[in-house]
Amino acid sequence: MSYSPDDSIQYVRGVGPKRAKYFKKLGIETVKDILFYYPRDYLSTVTDKSISELKINETVSLKAKVTSKNNVYRKYRKSIFQVVVSDGTGYIYCIWFNASKWLREQFEEGKEIIVRGKLQFYGKKLSIIHPDVEFLNKEKKRSFWSERDYLPVYNLTEGLSNKLLRKVIHNIFERGFEIEETLPEYLREQQNLLPVYKALKLIHMPSSQQDIKRARRRFVFEELFFVELMLARKKKDWSRKKGNSLVLKKTLTTQLKNKLPFALTFAQKKVIREIVDDMKSPYQMNRLLQGDVGSGKTIVAIFAMLLAVENGFQAAIMAPTEILAQQHYLSLKDYLKNFDVKLSLLLGGNYKDKKKILKNIKSGKCDIIVGTHSLIQKNVEFDSLGLIVIDEQHRFGVMQRKTLIQKGQTPDKLVMSATPIPRSLALTIYGDLEVSVIDELPPNRKTVYTNWINSDKREEVIDFLQKKIEEGRQVFIVCPLVEESEKSDLKAATSTYKKLKQGTFSEFEVDLLHGKMKNEKKDKIMHEFSRGNIDVLVATTVIEVGIDVPNATIMMIEHAERFGLSQLHQLRGRVGRGKYKSYCVLVAYEPISETGLKRLNTMRKTNDGFEIAEVDLEIRGPGEFFGTEQSGIPHFKIANIIRDKEILEEAREYAFYIIDKDYELISEKNKELRKKYRQNYLEKEKLFSF
Ligand code: ADP
Ligand code: MG
Asked: Given Cys at both, which of 66, 73, 100, 194 links 218, Cβ 3.0 to 4.6 Å?
């Protein structure tokens, strides 16, 4: 009798109660679970290259013999286990850190193995660090797997081996199983996708690269497709939500236009038009505004807010930190000087005036309210909130955003992102929103000349800074920490500040800025710096979202190898804002990791935030990209939105096409989709952006 998908894994041949417990740790409880437990990789005995022909940085899979092994203990009880393998044309070192005794015992001189991994230099030796290994056991009788050219490799846990997983999966195929098709035939045909049984077979037991590719395509497409169905449905929902039809009264908006000290860029005009059109329509706006650092998003948001206000509504802007909120408040105050618009800033905690501010928000006396999470507190009530602007959307949770929206009257929503988001990521997390992109910087922006140097050349940089300060320019020095600590020897802001002030820069005004200071003190220092009263500002990353000082033309970043790419880019965005040539010098300290090097080189190569974001996404992966947990990025089992970009685009286009025709998935030909959607996705719709 064949297996049914819900059969417990315990009763599959080769498992039993003890192993079932280990399987459970991997989330595998049923036959279906293990069938959809995709291999993370494959070991292949098919090689067309010998060791002598391999190139560095290549991912290789090859058959070789163990020629020697040894285990070296290092300081702090770390050990390095080395196995040398050869195929007769050359040698490769396989390296493990802290290898288990069990692993070490597996290797015997003369044994034939398959190794797979990325070839690199470790020390001066051609090595693979933590390779995947398969032992080829000659004596044993031939089995299904011993004949195969491609062996699947799974993510494992203690108590389970690849061999066991392969055996169990093979047993299931031997006995046979029932499995439900989840993609309609017409769809599979049009999108060139394998049926589910065939795809499962090929993903676990491929005979060629082509098999792997076709099987992956089926599952990657399906995974992305269902998420995109959800996005398509949400987007349709939003677009049908009744809102306020505003009228471009040209009172406040025109007043601002006439008062601007600069001409709007073409891109700014374009996105303002998109926003105004949305707000005029009888439906609610749901728009994401993207643009690189310094592309001028603030002024666009201000236009939107003034449009709401000239229609008698209130507008609120919510930022994730107090510094950011304060900065928005100050910009608004500056732009709207002499306007008949009442602004207020609402921060957390209790302070003088807070009661009065809350009262004014409730009575409608305040027109534009800038705030942090404080805006969503219970005691905050609005009179007629018509527009919500959320800065750095991904730093807020779904419930927080919803709470704010519920305080409004069918408000329009504008979400801003200070981090440029690569297209593939935007399609998966903001795919339900309309998107406006400011893809042009104001004309006076100069590219910041960027270089990175090794710390032994730091003195030369200091000389250069000195020269520039003597010419009248100002300098930022960014450090990764506030205080030096025993645990690390990273340069800290406080000690760097002291050293410079007492030593090299004693004739200049040097000051210090970090997040542990009181707000008033921070404000005062920022203010002094922007007035030109401070020559050198030593700071932590608090200046990331800080100030706009055209005369500050140089930024030196200590331990640049430690910073994330997007963060480096944001920091660099603080210079290059005036008429002088600007510089960003990244000082790197050994050891510099491979990804560290990639970040440094990317910074040197480009000033384009979107390009940088792409590389950052590639290095860190979607989950870490924003550095927060609340970002709402769907978890994919097999799809990789960077590698599978093309499939993503195809799946998206097709999903939108289907939802457009059959929103409820009620047509007979979509019955498979309807079933899976109801089971797995309908509930998730609730977790969406708004
Ligand atoms: P971001 O998109 O990073 O939030 P901002 O809105 O803070 O950028 O704008 C950066 C700076 O550019 C501000 O000082 C702003 O006054 C200025 N700015 C914005 N738009 C223009 C423009 N069209 N021409 C010149 N300067 C501009
Ligand atoms: Mg901004």
From this structure: 194
Which tens digit of pLDDT belongs to each residue from 456-506? 999 999 999 999 999 999 999 999 887 766 566 667 888 889 988 898 899
pLDDT digit string, tens, across residues 7-30: 999 999 999 999 999 999 999 999
Closest CA to 655 of 216, 181, 200, 183: 183
Which atom of ligand 1 is nearest to 573's Cα?
Answer: 3
Task: Answer whether residue 627 is part of any domain.
Answer: no
pTM exceeds 0.85 for this model: no
User: 463 C-alpha vs ligand 2 centroid, how far in Å?
Assistant: 33
Domain span holding position 29: 1-38+154-179
Query: Is residue 550 situated within a structural domain?
Result: yes
**Nearest listed ligand to the Cα of residue 573:** 1
In testing the pocket of ligand 1, which one of 295, 317, 331, 446 has its CB within 8 Å of the most ligand atoms? 295
Q: How many angstroms separate the alpha carbon of residue 343 from the centre of ligand 1?
A: 20
pLDDT at 5: 94
**Are 61 and 20 part of one and the same domain?**
no
Q: Which of 378, 356, 382 lies closest to 369, judged by CA?
A: 382
- Tell which residue, 616, 506, 619, 500, has the closest CA to residue 558: 500
In whole angstroms, give the CA distance from residue 297 to residue 305. 13
Average pLDDT over residues 371-383: 94
Q: Is 122 in the pocket of ligand 1 (CB under 6 A)?
A: no
Whether residue 167 is found in the same domain as residue 78: no
